[in-house]
Amino acid sequence: MEGDRLEPSVTIKNIERELICPACKELFTHPLILPCQHSICHKCVKEILFTLEDSFTDGGSESSNQSSPRIRIHSPSMDRIDRISRSGRKRNSLTPRATMFPCPGCRHDIDLGERGISGLFRNLTLETIVERYRQAARAATAIMCDFCKPPAQESTKSCMDCSASYCNECFKVYHPWGTVKAQHEYVGPTTNFRPKILMCPEHEMERVNMYCEICRRPVCHLCKLGGSHANHRVTTMSTAYKALKCNGERAKEEAAQNFDKLFDVLQEKRSVALRAIETSKNLRLEKLQTQIEEYQGLLENNGLVGYAQEVLKETDQSCFVQTAKQLHVRIQKATESLKSFRPAAETSFQDFVVDVAKQEEVLGDLSFYSNGLDVPEINEEKSKIYNKAVIGWEYPGKADSADIYVLEYRKLNKDEDSATWEEIEVCSKSKVISDLDNNSSYAFRVRGYKGSICSPWSREVILHTPPAPVFSFLFDDKCGYNSEHLLLNPRRSSVESRAGFPLLLGAERIQVGCYTTLDYIIGDTGIAKGKHFWAFHVEAHSYLVKVGVASSAKIQEWLHNPRDVTSPRYEQDSGHDSGSEDTCFESSQPFTLVTLGMRSFFIPKAPAAPKGSASRILPMPSCIGVCLDYDKGKVGFYDADHMKCLYERQVDCSGIMYPAFALMGGSGIHLEEAITANYLEYQDDI
Predict the structure, then answer these.
(1) Under a CB-based contact definition with an 8 Å cutoff, are residues 503 and 564 in contact?
(2) Where is the RING-type domain (predicted)?
C-alpha cells in the first residue's frame, strides 16, 4: 500500500524531468529541435553560441585550431545578450555567427549550417505539454475561493478575521462597504491564519485573561475590578483550561460507565433468554423421548412387530394368505390408536421471540441531556395547516435557544398504532412542510441541539389537514360587485361592507317593509369538477354574513332580477307554525348559503326541526372553511381551525360553481392566505 501511495508522485517527478532543458535545468521555454533530435530552449542556443564566439575571439587562432570545446553552462540567462546590447553592438549582431556547438544532452557536435538558429524548428508539441504542466502546477498550489459556487475561482485575498479566502467578487459580497466586516484585516491568499485573539465583549480593547467560575465565561481584568463580575470568583485561564479538560475526561469516563451498564444489562438479558430457551428445549426433549419409549414399548409388548416378522417368513401360500388377513386387522387397530397421537411437548418456540422494537426506538433517541437546555414548545397559535403546514416553536421565558432543531412528524392512522416519524433538521424556529395527505391527522414534535447536548422532545401537537385540496381564488370585482356598498382591498383578498350605508339607502322603503338588502360578491374562479376546500375569516364585529356557493345559472338569474331577501315577507321565523315560509325562503335565495354574525354560526333549520332550537346556534369559529364536492353534489361548512364539519347539505351542481358571499351592515371577510416556503419565518429574538 505504501508503494501505491508513492507511485503518483514518482510518476510526476519522471514527467517533470523530461520537461527540463538540459542546458538551463529549467522548464523548456520556446524549445527548438536539434538535428540529434534533442530539444533545447531558444535562449539557451543563443547563449551557447555567443559564449563559443567570445571564447574563440579571446583565445586567438591557436584555440581556434583545437577541436570543438565541450562547454557546459550551469546557469545561463539573458544577461549575456543584454550585456552585448549595452556594449554597442548593432541589432543584427545579436544573431550569433558561430554555427558549431556540442549538444548539452548527448554531447555530440551540432552543425547548424549556413542558416544557423533560423534553420531549427520549434518543438510545438513539447511546448504545449510544458505549458499545460505549468498550469496544472499553478492550480495544484493555488488557493481557491471558499465561497464561490462551482467551479471555484482562484482567491485574490484572505481575511485574517474570518479565516477564509475570497475572490474579488465574493470579498465585495461578504465585506460590504460601511459595515463592520469592511474593517477586517485582509492579506494576500494564504492558508496560514493566525489564532484570533479573544477580546472582552464588554471592554472591546481588553483581552480576556481570566475565567469567571460563577458565570462560566472568560472575562478581562476590568470586568473583575469594577464590572459585573466584581464580586464573582475568578481564576486564571490556564487553571480553567486544566479543570475543563479534566472535566471532559471525567465526562468521557462517566459516559463509558453508563454504556458499560447498558452492555451489562443487555448481556444479562441475553444470558437469561438463552438459558430459558435451553431449559425449555431440554424439558421438551425429555417428554418426547419418554413418549417415544412408551409407544415403542407398547408396540413391542403386544408382539405386533414380531408377529409381522414371522408372517413375512411364511413360505406356504395358503398359510400366508390366512395369517396376512389377521395381521392386517391387528395393524389396522394399532394405526387407529395412533390417529389420536399428540406430541407430549410443543414443538414451536414462539413464546420465546424477543420484541425489541420499542427498545430500539429508545436507544435511537439516546443522547446527552442537559439541565441548561430547556424543552422547546410548539406554538399552536402560530402553527397551522392549510395548503401546506407551518410549524413554529419557542422557548419558555428567556431561555437560550439551541444551535439547531430537529422537527419530527408522522401521520396518525387508525389501523396502525405507531407510524414512522419523518425527521427534518431546522436552523430557525419555524418550518414549512409540504406534501401532506388530505383529510388526515398529523402529530408534530421538536427538540433542540446545542453541540452534542439535546433537549427532551416537546409535547406532541396534533393538527388536521383539510378534507380536500385547497382551492385558490380572489374576490371578483366585476360580476355583481357593488362598489358603493362594498370595499375591496388592492389584492382582492378582503372585502368589507360600509357600515350603515345600505341602511340609509333603504330608509325611503321602510314604509313598505323592506328595511335593508344583502350585498353579494363571488370568487373570480369557478369549479366544474372534483372536490375543493377554501377558508376565510369573518370579522368578529360583523353583523350579518352569508357564505356558501352559487351556480352560474343562479348568478345570471340574480343579476337580471335581484331581490330583497331580508324583507319581512321572506323572514324565516315569522311566527307561523307551518314550514311553508322556509321553503319559500330557500327558493328565494340566489345562492346556497349559511348565516354568520354577532359571533355566532347559524345552522339552517330542517323542516322537521322544532322552532327556536338552541342547538342551531354555535359559536362562530375564528376561521371558517367550505368544502364543495362537485361530483357528489355536496357542500360542507367547517371549523377550519380544527377541520371539524359543522353542517353539510346537498347542492345542485348543474353548472359552474363559484364561492359566494353576502354582507349586510358593518361586516368584513378575509380570505385565508396560502402558505408559501417563506411563510411565517420566525425570528429567534423577537
Answers:
(1) no
(2) 21-72
**What span, in angstroms and rounded, lies between the C-alpha atoms of 402 and 390?**
20
Give the cell for residue 199.
Answer: 477580546
The distance from CA 7 to its chain's CA centroid, rounded to whole angstroms, is 41
Reply yes or no on whether the pLDDT at 391 is more than 60.
yes
- Spell 538-548 as b/e; 16+ CB within 10 A means b: beeebebbbbb
The residues, any chain, with a CB within 8 Å of residue 636's CB and separated by 6 or more, are: 467, 626, 627, 629, 645, 647, 648
Is-contact 220 203, C-beta < 8 A?
yes
DSSP codes joined into one string, 522-575: EBSS-B-SSEEEEEEEE-TT-SEEEEEEEEHHHHHHHHHS---TTSGGG-TTSS
pLDDT at 579 over 80: no
pLDDT > 90: percent of the chain:
20
For the chain, percent of residues with pLDDT exceeding 70? 76
CA distance 637 to 660: 13
Strand partners, 390: 384, 432
Does the pLDDT at position 648 exceed 80? Answer: yes
Sequence-distant (6+) residues with CB within 8 A of 471 are: 525, 527, 532, 533, 534, 628, 659
3-state SS of 179-203 is CHHHHCCEECCCCCCCCCCCECCCC
Phi, psi dihedrals of residue 61, rounded to the nearest 5°: -70, -25
The predicted-structure confidence for 464-473, as pLDDT tens digits, reads as follows 999 999 999 9
CB 48 within 8 A of CB 54: no
- Beta strands 617-619 and 157-159: pairing type? unpaired
**Which strands sit side by side in the sheet containing 519-522, from one edge to the other?**
519-522, 657-664, 544-551, 592-597, 600-602, 617-619
**What count of other Cβ atoms lies within 10 Å of the Cβ of residue 505?**
13
Please report how many Cα atoms fall inside a 13 Å half-sphere around the Cα of residue 403, on the Cβ side.
Answer: 6
